[in-house]
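Spend some time on this chain, tokens included, and walk me through the fold:

. . .
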Amino acid sequence: MDCGCGEPAARARISIGKARFLLWFSYVNRKLVLDQIETLLPLAAEWAAEEEARILREGLPLAEQEIIDAKAIGVREPERVRLLRVDSIPTPRHPILKAAAGAIRFLTPAPRGLTLGHGIFVRSDCWGDRSLVAHELVHTAQYERLGGILPFLRKYLLECVTIGYSEAPLEQEAIAVVTRICVE
């Protein structure tokens, strides 16, 4: 309630000012990441390859329904795919990658799954979620189609930085395919 001293209006100006600053800060962070994307990509690809190797070593092969889904999605080598159950999806430890991921809000808030080539991390509380695994299998098909980790990350991260995660065409493709596969 306004007591006549203009306090709510002052708070509104502060809130608008803070919102503008956060928008500007987000833009600057995204711009910095975009300017450094070619420097970041080899680090990101190295991290992704190491994590994929871990999943392929420790993970479980797809179940029968998941293989059926993978083939329907277009995964060329579903027998290579492994799922690894984890309490939380790992994030890069390298300080530059960690900062870049934060700047573009990648892997936040806690993702339910993450695909790295033929390896898929699945958060424990989401284990057995068909639509989540199908979504991640679409990303596996994209990795295959685009030619591996580095080409996929280049396209995916550029989309996330320039368009935004939720509007990125690779994400939109995954959403559309899951809707088709899991509704049938």
The beta strands are 60-61, 82-86, 113-116, 119-123. Confidence is low (pLDDT under 50) at residues 1-6, 8-13, 20-28. The radius of gyration is 20 Å.
